[in-house]
Specification:
The complex is a heterotrimer. Chain B is an alpha/beta fold. Chain B has 12 helices and 12 strands. Classes of the chains: A alpha/beta, B alpha/beta, C mainly alpha.
Chain lengths: ~350, ~350, ~300
C-alpha cells in the first residue's frame, strides 16, 4: 500500500509498467520427427494493465486464470506470443541480449515456494550475492558487505551468510528470497504467491517486511495471489482474472464493496471469513459446472458457461473491459448493473454485496 | 447423544536418528454424535498425526503411540488387532485427505474405488453395490453419474475428485468422518462447493465430522467446537462462536490477528507472531509457546493448568489476556491487539467464565 | 498501509537463531561425508581400494623384483617362499606383475572414466537444457552409438585403429561409454531445469552457461558420481576383455587383462596365473561398485532434503 506521502508524490500518469494486449499461448504439438501444432493452451489471452510507480497492483485469480503466467512473461521466463510489456519506454516483450539484461536489473521476482526457489547447493550468502555478481556490481568485498547488509535489512542475522537453505525455516527462506530480489536495487518486483506456502502465523511477518521495504526503497509491486483476503490487505488496485483475461479492475476497496462482475462477486462470496456469525448466515454464489479448458475457450464472454446471470448475448459477444463508473473501475460484463443484486443475504460490514 | 469418540492423554512420537519427535504431546478431547469438531493448527502442531492415530494409519516404526487411549463407540481402538481395525476403517470411521490426485488410485475406475468399501463392509451384491455407487455420486453432486462411474480419476477436475473421495468415504455410512485439510489444494470457489457439500451430508446423514485445517475462516463456518493445537498440545478448546468472540490463549489471539481478513478494510498492520514454528525434536520446558508469546511470564516454565473460561471453554495459559495490564505489557512487546471486526471484539464476554486459573 | 509501530522491532524474532541453526552446523560436504561413512560396506570398499592404489604406487617397495625380468628356469613355477604367487610363463614374478599391472589397469580405468564423464556431461547438459532440435539431434547420435553392443564396438574399432597403446585404449573405451552417461545427465537436466531455483536464476539474468554448469550441474552430481564410479569398474573390465582377446594392449605394456591373455594356456597346469589377475579385477570392480552405491545413498537423501 502506498503511504500518503508517496501517493502525493506520484502523478496520475506515472506508469511504471504497462501491459498492452499481452498474449501468451503455449502450442500443443504432435508428431515424431516434425512437430505440427494442433492447438494451444491460451494461458494469457489479451491482457492490458498498468501499474503506477510506487504502488501495489494485486492480481487475483484461481488456477488456470493466467496470473502466474503474466508474472513470468514480464520477467521473460517466457517470450510472449504477442503484445507489449512496456517498462517505462522499453518493451520487455521484444528486448534481447544486452537490453534484456539491463531491464532484468530493474525487474525482479519472488517465487511461491521458498523450499524450491533457493538452490540447495549454495550458501545463502552466495545466493544473495549472485545477482550482484552477474551484473558486476562491485568488487568481491563490496558484494560481500552488501550481502550481509541485505540479510539485516530482511531481518536475518549477518552470521547466516555461510549457512545453507535447508537449515532455515520456510519464513526465513522467503526472507532470503526477498533479499536476493532486492540485491541489485530493482524498481519493480513481481511477487508470485509469496506467502501461500507459508504457515499462517508467518505470513504476516513477510507481508509486513514487504511493506516496509516498499516504503524504504520506493518499490513497485505486482502481487499475484489467489487469496483475496491477503490482496485486500496489500494492494492499492486489484485486477481479477479468469481464464486468461481480466474480468474486473478497481482501486482499493471498490471491488470488495461494489463488485461489477459476477465472477468477482462469486469469488468474494466464496472466501471463508473467520467469523462464525457471518459464515453461518452467508448465502454463497455457487458457480455451475467446471472451469473450461484453456485450450477451448468458450465463445462470447468466457465466463458465460458458469455465470448465474448469463444471457443470450453473453454467449455471442465478448464484453469489452471498460470503465463502468467513470472513475477507473473497469469490468468486462454486459450486465454489471445486475451484479449488485446478484448476491443475496447477509450484508457484511465493510463488504457491499455479501 | 452419547460420546462417540474419546481421546485421553494421547502421546505420539516419531523415532529418528536424532532422537524422538514429540508430535503429539498429551492431548484429550471428546466428540459427540453428530457434532463437528475443528482442529486448527499449523505445521508441527500435531493435528494430522492426531487424526492418523485415531485410524492407526501411522507407520509404526518410526511412529509410536507412546501413551493414551482412543475410545470409539465404547471400543478401545488402540487395543484392537489390525484386522479388527480394518473393519472400522472405511466403515465406522472414514477419512478424506488433502490431495485427491494422490489419494485416488489412478489405474482403477471410480466405480471400483467406490464399490470397494461398499462390498467390504456392507456385503451388498454386485448390482446392489452399483446402484448405491450411482446414488452416492448423485448425492455428492456429480452430474451424469452412470457415465462417470466408468471414468478414471485423471478425467475429473480437482473439485470433482474431491467429491469422489467424499463419496468413497461415506459409501459405508460411517459414524465419523475425518477430513484432513480437504480443501487446501482447491480453488476458493471449488472450496466453497466442497464445504457446502460436507455440511449438507452432515445434516442429512448425521455423521460426526472432525475437520482439520489451518484456515480459521473454514472452521468458522463448519464446526460446532474447535481445538487449537500448538506444538503437539491443545492450547485452547471452545465452542466455535465462543472461540472467535472470546479467545483466551495468546496463540489463538495471535492467529486471529495475524490473518488478513476479507471483511476488513485494508490499513493497520498485521500482528505478527514472531519467531518460527516449534522444534518438536527438542521440546522446551513448560509452555511451548513461550519463545513467541507476548504475554510470557517467568512462571510459564511450568506448563500452565487448564484455565476454565466457560462451560466448554478451556485455555492452557497462566495469563488472563483480557486484563488491561497484561495487554499493555504485551503491546509493549510488540503485540497488536485484535481489531474490532463485525461487532466481535476481543474480550466480549459471550460466556460467564470465572476467568481465573483453576486446577482441573 | 500505516507505517510500522516504532516499538515493534519488525523482525525481532527472525534475528534469533532457530534451534536448528543454533546447534552445531555441518556443511554440506560434511553431511554427505558422514552419511557415506556410516555405510560400512561402502567404507570397506573404499579402504580396500585405497590399499590397492597404494600397493600399485609403492610397488617397487613391496617387491624388489623387476616385473619384466625373465627367468626361464622358473617358468610357471608354483608359489614358493621366494615368489609368493609363483611365476608366469616367462618366469617373471607373478606378484610383481600383478602390482605393476594394477598401475596400468587402474590408470586406464580412471582416465577413460574422466574422458567419458567429460563428454557425457557436456552432451547431456546441452541436450537436456536446450531441448528441441538440439536435444533431438544429440539423442539420435547417442542412440546410434547405443544401437551396437559395447563390446562389438570395442573389438571392431580396436581391431582396426588401435596400435595397442594405453592412450588408444583409453580413447576407444571412453568414446563408446559416454552415451550412457549422456543419457543420465540429460535426464537430470530435463528435470532440474524446471525447478524454481533455476527459474529464479534466469530471472536474475544468469547466462545459459552459468545456469547449466554453475546451477544445475552441482545438483546432478549424485547420479553422475554413481555413473563415474561404476564406470571405472566397467572400463577396467572392458580393457581386460579387450586385452584378453588380444585386441587391447600390446606388448610390452601389460595389465591384468594381458596377464589373463598370457595365462590362458596354463589354466589347468598353473591356475594361479589365471586366478591372480582375475581376482584382482574382481575385487577392484567390486570396490568401485560398493563405493558407487555408497555415494548414491549418501548424496541422494541429501538432495531431496528440503
Amino acid at each position: 500500500m502506498i503511504s500518503p506521502e508517496v501517493h502525493a508524490a506520484t502523478t496520475a500518469t506515472d506508469e511504471l509498467l504497462r501491459l498492452d494486449n499481452l498474449v501468451m499461448h503455449f502450442p500443443i504439438t504432435q508428431g515424431i520427427l516434425v512437430q505440427r501444432q494442433i492447438g494451444a493452451v491460451k494461458a494469457v489471452d489479451g491482457v492490458s494493465l498498468t501499474v503506477k510507480r510506487g504502488a501495489t497492483l494485486g492480481l487475483v485469480g484461481e488456477s488456470g486464470s493466467g496470473k502466474s503466467t503474466i508474472g513470468r512473461c514480464i520477467v521473460r521466463l517466457y517470450k510472449p506470443t504477442s503484445g507489449h510489456i512496456f517498462f517505462e519506454q522499453n518493451d520487455l516483450a521484444e528486448a534481447e541480449g544486452g537490453d534484456l539484461r539491463n531491464l532484468r536489473r530493474r525487474v525482479q521476482m519472488i517465487f511461491q515456494d521458498p523450499y524450491a526457489s533457493l538452490n540447495p547447493r549454495f550458501a545463502v550468502g552466495s545466493l544473495i550475492a549472485e545477482p550482484m555478481k552477474i551484473h558486476k556490481m562491485g568488487s568481491s568485498k563490496e558484494i560481500r558487505d552488501r550481502t550481509e547488509q541485505l540479510l539485516e535489512i530482511v531481518g536475518l542475522n549477518r552470521r547466516f551468510v555461510d549457512r545453507y537453505p535447508h537449515e532455515f525455516s520456510g519464513g526465513q527462506r522467503q526472507r532470503i528470497a526477498v533479499a536476493r530480489a532486492i540485491a541489485i536495487n530493482p524498481e519493480f518486483i513481481i511477487a508470485d504467491e509469496p506467502v501461500s506456502a507459508l504457515d499462517v502465523s508467518i505470513r504476516a511477518q513477510i507481508l509486513n517486511l514487504m511493506d516496509r521495504l516498499q516504503q524504504q526503497f520506493g518499490l513497485t509491486y505486482l502481487f499475484i495471489s489467489h487469496d483475496l483476503s491477503v490482496v485486500r490487505h496489500v494492494a492499492d488496485r486489484i485486477a481479477v482474472m479468469y481464464l486468461g483475461k481480466i474480468m474486473e479492475v478497481a482501486d482499493g476497496e471498490e471491488i470488495y464493496t461494489n463488485p461489477l462482475h459476477p465472477y468477482a462477486a462469486a469469488l468474494l462470496s466464496a472466501v471463508p471469513i473467520p467469523n462464525p456469525r457471518i459464515e453461518k448466515q452467508r448465502k454463497r454464489i455457487i458457480l455451475k459446472g467446471d472451469l473450461p479448458s484453456p485450450v477451448n475457450i468458450p465463445s462470447g464472454c468466457r465466463f458465460h458457461t458458469r455465470c448465474p446471470i448469463a444471457q443470450e448475448i453473453c454467449r455471442q459477444v465478448e464484453p469489452p473491459l471498460e470503465d463502468k463508473t467513470g472513475s477507473g473501475h473497469l469490468a468486462a460484463c454486459h450486465f454489471s448493473d445486475r451484479v449488485g443484486s446478484l448476491a443475496a443475504g447477509g450484508s457484511v460490514e465493510g463488504m457491499g454485496t455479501l | 447423544m452419547g460420546k462417540l469418540l474419546e481421546v485421553k492423554d494421547l502421546k505420539v512420537q516419531f523415532r529418528t536418528r536424532e532422537g524422538a519427535i514429540h508430535a503429539v504431546d498429551g492431548i484429550s478431547f471428546e466428540l459427540e454424535e453428530g457434532e463437528a469438531l475443528g482442529i486448527v493448527g499449523e505445521s508441527g502442531s500435531g493435528k494430522s498425526v492426531t487424526s492418523l492415530s485415531i485410524l492407526r494409519l501411522l507407520p509404526m516404526p518410526p511412529a509410536e503411540i507412546v501413551d493414551g487411549s482412543i475410545t470409539f463407540a465404547d471400543q478401545e481402538l488402540l487395543e484392537l488387532s489390525e484386522s479388527e481395525m480394518r473393519k472400522i476403517r472405511g466403515h465406522e470411521i472414514a477419512m478424506i485427505f488433502q490431495d485427491p490426485m494422490t489419494s485416488l488410485n489412478p489405474v482403477l475406475t471410480v466405480e471400483r474405488q467406490i464399490i470397494e468399501p461398499i462390498q467390504l463392509h456392507l456385503g451388498l451384491n454386485r448390482s446392489e453395490a452399483h446402484a448405491r455407487a450411482r446414488a452416492l455420486l448423485e448425492a455428492v453432486g456429480i452430474p451424469d453419474p452412470e457415465r462417470r462411474l466408468r471414468s478414471y480419476p485423471h478425467q475429473f477436475s480437482g473439485g470433482m475428485r474431491q467429491r469422489v473421495m467424499i463419496a468413497i468415504a461415506i459409501a459405508a455410512n460411517p459414524k465419523l468422518l475425518i477430513a484432513d485439510e480437504p480443501t487446501t489444494a482447491l480453488d476458493v470457489t471449488v472450496q466453497a462447493q466442497i464445504l457446502e457439500l460436507i455440511n449438507r451430508l452432515r445434516r442429512d446423514l448425521g455423521t460426526s465430522v472432525i475437520l482439520i485445517t489451518h484456515d480459521l475462516g473454514v472452521v468458522a463456518g463448519m464446526t460446532d467446537r474447535i481445538n487449537v493445537m500448538y506444538a503437539g498440545k491443545i492450547a485452547e478448546t471452545a465452542n466455535t462462536d465462543e472461540l472467535f468472540a472470546n479467545p483466551r490463549h495468546p496463540y489463538t489471539l495471535g492467529l486471529l490477528s495475524a490473518v488478513p481478513r476479507l471483511d476488513e478494510e485494508a490499513g493497520g498492520d498485521l500482528n505478527t507472531i514472531p519467531g518460527s514454528p516449534p522444534d518438536q525434536l527438542h521440546p522446551i520446558e513448560g509452555c511451548p509457546f513461550q519463545p513467541r508469546c507476548p504475554f510470557v511470564l517467568p512462571k510459564c516454565k511450568d506448563y500452565p493448568p487448564a484455565l476454565r473460561v466457560g462451560p466448554n471453554h478451556i485455555a492452557y495459559c497462566w495469563v488472563d489476556v483480557t486484563d488491561p495490564a497484561e495487554q499493555e505489557r504485551a503491546i509493549a512487546r510488540g503485540f497488536i491487539p485484535l481489531r474490532e471486526i463485525g461487532g466481535l471484539r476481543q474480550g466480549s464476554p459471550a460466556s460467564t467464565g470465572t476467568g481465573s486459573p483453576s486446577n482441573g | 498501509m500505516a507505517t510500522i509501530q516504532s516499538n515493534q522491532a519488525p523482525t525481532a524474532g527472525a534475528l534469533e537463531l532457530t534451534p536448528e541453526l543454533a546447534r552445531k552446523r555441518r556443511s554440506q560436504g560434511r553431511i554427505i561425508l558422514d552419511r557415506f561413512l556410516r555405510n560400512r560396506v561402502a567404507v570397506g570398499g573404499l579402504v580396500v581400494l585405497l590399499l590397492m592404489v597404494l600397493a600399485a604406487i609403492f610397488a617397487p617397495f613391496i617387491s624388489h623384483y623387476d616385473p619384466d625380468q625373465y627367468n626361464i628356469a622358473l617358468q610357471t613355477a608354483p608359489p614358493s617362499a621366494a615368489h609368493i604367487l609363483g611365476n608366469d610363463d616367462l618366469g617373471r614374478d607373478e606378484l610383481t606383475r600383478l602390482l605393476y599391472g594394477a598401475r596400468t589397469s587402474l590408470t586406464i580405468g580412471i582416465t577413460s572414466m574422466l574422458v567419458m564423464v567429460a563428454i557425457g556431461v557436456l552432451v547431456g547438459a546441452v541436450a537436456g537444457f536446450y531441448g528441441g532440435w538440439i536435444d533431438n539431434l544429440l539423442m539420435r547420435i547417442t542412440d546410434g552409438f547405443l544401437a551396437v553392443p559395447f563390446l562389438i564396438w570395442l573389438f571392431t574399432v580396436a581391431g582396426i585403429f588401435s596400435n595397442g597403446s594405453v592412450k588408444d585404449i583409453v580413447i576407444i573405451i571412453a568414446v563408446f561409454s559416454w552415451p550412457i552417461t549422456a543419457r543420465i545427465v540429460r535426464g537430470e537436466f530435463l528435470g532440474l531445469k524446471e525447478r524454481e531455483f533455476l527459474l529464479a536464476a534466469r530471472t536474475l539474468g544468469a547466462s545459459d552457461a552459468r545456469l547449466m554448469f554453475w546451477h544445475i550441474l552441482p545438483n546432478a552430481i549424485g547420479p553422475i558420481t554413481v555413473v563415474a564410479t561404476l564406470g571405472v569398474g566397467q572400463n577396467i573390465i572392458a580393457e581386460s576383455i579387450l586385452s584378453f582377446f588380444g585386441f587391447g594392449l600390446q606388448k610390452p605394456t601389460s595389465s591384468w587383462g594381458t596377464m589373463l591373455n598370457d595365462s590362458q594356456a596354463y589354466i589347468t597346469s598353473a591356475p594361479i596365473l589365471v586366478w591372480a589377475p582375475g581376482i584382482a579385477i574382481l575385487i577392484t570392480v567390486l570396490c568401485f561398485n560398493l563405493i558407487g552405491d555408497g555415494m548414491r545413498d549418501a548424496l541422494d537423501p541429501y538432495m531431496t532434503e528440503r
